[in-house]
Amino acid sequence: MGSKDHAVFFREMTQLILNEMPKAGYSSILNDFVESNFFVIDGDSLLVTCLGVKSFKWGQNLHFFYLVECYLVDLLSNGGQFAMVFFKDAEYAYFDFPELLSLRTALILHLQHNTNIDVQTEFSGCLSQDWKLFLEQHYPYFLIVSEEGLSDLQTYLFNFLIIHSWGMKVNVVLSSGHESDTLRFYAHTMESTDRNQTFSEENETVIQSAYKSLIQHLEERRVLALAPHFEHLKWNDMMEEAYQTLFLLQHLWSEGSDIQRVLCVTSCSLSLRMYHRVLVHSNCLSLQEVEDFCRLRCLCVAFQLHLPLSQRACSRVITCSWIRNSDSFLKMNKWCEHFILSNLNVFGCWNLNLNHVSDLYDEQLLKNIAFYYEFESTQEPHLNLGDSIRRDYEDLWNVVSHLVKEFNVGKSFPLRTTRRHFLRQEKSVIQEISLEKMPSVGFIPMTSAVIDEFVGDMMKDLPVLKSDDPVVPSLFKQKTSDELLHWHAQRLLSDDYDRIKCHVDEQSRDPHVLDFLKKIQDYQQFYGKSLESISTKVIVTQTTQPKEDSSGTSGEILQNTKPHQITKKSKKKSFLKEDQNKAQQNDDLLFSIEEEMKKNLHSGIRKLEDYLTSCASNSVKFGVEMLGLIACFKTWKEHCRGEGKILKDLSIAVQMMKRIHSLLERYPEILEAEHHQYIAKCLKYLGFNDLANSLDPTLIGHDKNKKKYLIDIGPARFQLQYMGHYLIRDERKDRDPRVQDFIPNAWQQELLDVVDKNESAVIVAPTSSGKTYASYYCMEKVLRESDDGVVVYVAPAKSLVGQVAATVENRFTKTLPAGRTLCGAFTRDYRHNVLNCQVLITVPECFEILLLAPHRQKWVERIRYVIFDEVHYLGREVGTKFWELLLVIIRCPFLVLSATINNPNLLTKWLQSVKQYWKQADKIMEEKFISEKQADKCLNFLQDNSYKNQSYEVRLVLCGERYNDLEKHICSVKHDDVYFDHFHPCAALTTDIIEKYGFPPDLTLTPQESIQLYDTMAQVWETWPRAQELCPEEFILFKNKIVIKKLDARKYEENLKAELTNWIKNGQVKKVKRVLKNLSPDSLSSSKDMVKMFPLLVEKLRQMDKLPAIFFLFKNDDVGKRAGSMCTFLEKTETKSHPHTECHSYVFAIDEVLEKVRKTQKRINTKKNPKKAEKLERKPMCRAEYINFLENLKILEISEDRTYADVKALCTEITRNKGSTLDRVLPRVRLTRHGKELKALAQRGIGYHHSGMYFKEKEFVEILFVKGLIRVVTATETLALGIHMPCKSVVFAQDSVYLDALNYRQIM
């Protein structure tokens, strides 16, 4: 089938792409301060795009290369990491444009030899297997392609590339319509949607057939394009002729030369020889005329070698074109240039300078020379040339004469031996650019102390226009308004603060208003307490010192009076009684834990660990840990005694080793010999004999009867493979008096020091590592210092403002003067206590309103610290100007927080330069203040000393260790079921990436993944020299070590990464490729049915105990639909267990308790024992609570297999009559838009969260999720802005062009 037979498919493919173009999103494809995603640029698309630039003039090679490099510099300056690909098949599209064929070849040479860009030219076409393998190995985020070619055939080639990219799940960025600024690079992106992928899959055979027919058609056109110029000579013949020409030149110039000279002499000589062979049609140039033209070409190159660009740029523009008779030779010459350039790579050892490959042809210069000698010159041509130009010209022509052996081409002079003009004689031949008066270029003169101070002596070296220059008034537009404008946004300088909605008058003393404000505060504290269980800290201002006791010794006498002594004894007695009660409660709790562990070990262990977190006594903790170890050991023995067991439940052994780790590491001073002996016995039963002997050498050797207890795996491998999440981290033992709740790490202590010294800092630490604590410590410090200081917390979006404000209200309480409050909030939607609070939570654009408002400067002077959370939004396309402006204009110390800044050193350096500027400015202001004060002319604005005690240092505080290890899985649909395949992080790498960039700093492995990497390396290279050394059991940090710590596992990981890198350096690239391939998951089926299978995915996670989970989608409509599909699925599911579910077991347990209560009441009533009756009344479950519980269950009518909610949390909420979470949050969404739907979903333990929801609805979902009443949430990326919603699983349920490296790391 030919290309005509596929015309219908070509139109169908084109129509599909045209339909997708209007849907293309226009956004920034690169982000500053964020690691760029790897992408690919189609080189031919870039060539076509630059040729289409309006300013480009054909024949100006240097200008074309300038446009290309500007494009690439924009990408590189914004942190782009990319490769450029030139397909071999794409060359066929230029056979009708031989001048572009040579230009394309020169572009490839330039990029390969004069830049550091990765240029790929080995792929035959976009449907080749090599290209497919490249995409699978490198995972490009997008491919930049042109939507239109120079011809229909080239457009079809681009269309095939687009369709294939979509089929490979690679997004497409159109090469046209790009814009860039200092921080971003904008483009139109067409996503690889399910529809596009389906089209590629369903038409795979047709696509292959149509592509082959198109290439075959282009090859036929190549033959037709060559025939008029080279007759019987074929493509390979011409390549051989070019090779022979270069071979002869190499012998003449054996020491080497530059590309301009080489291409000139070889292309001219080859063109002359070919023209001599095919000669000559009557309407073409004669051979002698062609020789004259080649002389002009050699002279033009001589000028290019010597004329500076500034002179060439001022040359005349010759508007007339070459005569039609020269067309045949010009095309032949361009073909020859292409053949010569294509053969250069063969002569690799030849010393050829390719620096000027971008300046091979200057048509305007050639036309100027031809015009001069044809119309203006009256003298001998060689008399007008300089010695160096004439000498170079003669050398070039002599080499041409030497290379053309078939006939004599004549001497170098005279330059013209024929009379025919090569340029057409037209009326308007010259456009005298050089004669036009160029406008004056320079800076507009002005007087400004600020500019003089900022620029300094630089102004002396810059051109400045005169004030009477006519260009100066022409640059000023007519003033339309006297009102000032924002310098950066060009908005009217007005105060938007008053336009923002305020719910109540904050200064009102109306009782109803005060009552409303009290309710708001109560709810905020409830909201904050539901997010984190932290006790409220009472803040007392340090300036308020307690009064000294003026009574002196009389106070001591009063303390010794008899009434006081009686009161003291009674207090002591009550304290003792309280201690006895607590001890009794502890004993009861420990007994219940011990009993629970006998019934169900894992349930008992969970209770044991809950108790350990609440217990303060080390001796009690030690006893509880020993209790847990004994229970685990007994359970392990009973488990292993079971007959016919093939597989052992290693989770019991894991719990046993976890207790051993805790005992040895946390309580070494309490452990005695008998404890060591018991621990050694436990290790012996697990089969860890060497570890057991290291604790107790007196243990008897191997016992055959104990074989059934052994786990048949080495201790190091067991700890890494099965205990990765439980490995103990190295923690400081010395407490910091500034922190009561935990012992801070070294980097956290550095943060506290930063705040104490009033310094600024850039803090880069992973999610959940504890960086936010510095923010609260900073708030507490300012709150304690005075009642006037203000801390501003800048959140990236309004969705985070409410949550942070609630957390602050819950963490701190402080008695403030009338009219002052602790916390306020300010967003575009509402404001509350903004100017009278001490902690303001706001967003960047609102903070800018306050900073730039002239009449808010008194409030600005009160700011003591500014905290910027999620500062990587500085690299986003929306709102960047606010972040940048705020970081520049604030003068107080600041904290910059982020988990995903790629180049923190660069950001810190920039912020330090800003601080140094303010340091110099403050110094000048202080000197001016002193001088003005001495002169008694001090101005009010000079009296501001609020920043006098601050430090101007900006520290960089880094923490690279994430507290929780992440495991990644790929979800797919196989055989109508949902499967999870573990995705090893190294599988995302390629050998090229490892060789060029090494392992990414944020690519960390879990201990299990380190074991997997070692096993794969050992499997691939059976004779690996270091296999024994890096074996887990032999590794120096693991050998005979009972407690392997997290840091040990991290060093083992680093050793494996270094070893894999050395494999590449030592030439074992193929082995590394095999390792990476073996680590990749098996081939996965398409996930196109994931929408339909979504409820099964959630059900699978529940079965794996991986709830709570958050499912991220990127369209608001899809968020609600997926949540609804889960609810429908649960409604259709038949209840598998009615009376014996966990939820109903609570009912039966309560029934039993109540029955006992009734019997006891009867017995007490008969005996009339009032004390026992009173004790009975204090039972936790009364009759009314039970009735309420049953009523709620009736309303709910859902068993635990038909809801995703945590049943225990649900029952806890139901049994609470007053003050429960549900009582507080349900009324708030009663009248909201999505309230009814959210309540129905919440009964099933489901919720959704996106930016289009009312803030009360979002808070409803957040609170219930933290409480466990909702355990499945579908959400957009707005939930990834630092909102506190801890979960076990994060699922990306939808792909999006916005899911780049930044968003992925931020969400995780």
Automatic annotation (TrEMBL):
<keyword id="KW-0378">Hydrolase</keyword>
<keyword id="KW-0347">Helicase</keyword>
<feature type="compositionally biased region" description="Basic residues">
    <location>
        <begin position="565"/>
        <end position="574"/>
    </location>
</feature>
<keyword id="KW-0067">ATP-binding</keyword>
<dbReference type="Pfam" id="PF00270">
    <property type="entry name" value="DEAD"/>
</dbReference>
<comment type="similarity">
    <text>Belongs to the helicase family.</text>
</comment>
<protein>
    <recommendedName>
        <fullName>RNA helicase</fullName>
        <ecNumber>3.6.4.13</ecNumber>
    </recommendedName>
</protein>
<dbReference type="InterPro" id="IPR055124">
    <property type="entry name" value="PIN-like_DDX60"/>
</dbReference>
<dbReference type="InterPro" id="IPR011545">
    <property type="entry name" value="DEAD/DEAH_box_helicase_dom"/>
</dbReference>
<keyword id="KW-0547">Nucleotide-binding</keyword>
<dbReference type="GO" id="GO:0003676">
    <property type="term" value="F:nucleic acid binding"/>
</dbReference>
<dbReference type="Pfam" id="PF26167">
    <property type="entry name" value="TPR_DDX60"/>
</dbReference>
<dbReference type="Pfam" id="PF23002">
    <property type="entry name" value="PIN-like_DDX60"/>
</dbReference>
<dbReference type="GO" id="GO:0016787">
    <property type="term" value="F:hydrolase activity"/>
</dbReference>
<feature type="region of interest" description="Disordered">
    <location>
        <begin position="545"/>
        <end position="580"/>
    </location>
</feature>
<feature type="compositionally biased region" description="Polar residues">
    <location>
        <begin position="545"/>
        <end position="564"/>
    </location>
</feature>
<dbReference type="GO" id="GO:0003724">
    <property type="term" value="F:RNA helicase activity"/>
</dbReference>
<dbReference type="InterPro" id="IPR014001">
    <property type="entry name" value="Helicase_ATP-bd"/>
</dbReference>
<dbReference type="GO" id="GO:0005524">
    <property type="term" value="F:ATP binding"/>
</dbReference>
<feature type="domain" description="Helicase ATP-binding">
    <location>
        <begin position="752"/>
        <end position="919"/>
    </location>
</feature>
<dbReference type="InterPro" id="IPR027417">
    <property type="entry name" value="P-loop_NTPase"/>
</dbReference>
<dbReference type="InterPro" id="IPR052431">
    <property type="entry name" value="SKI2_subfamily_helicases"/>
</dbReference>
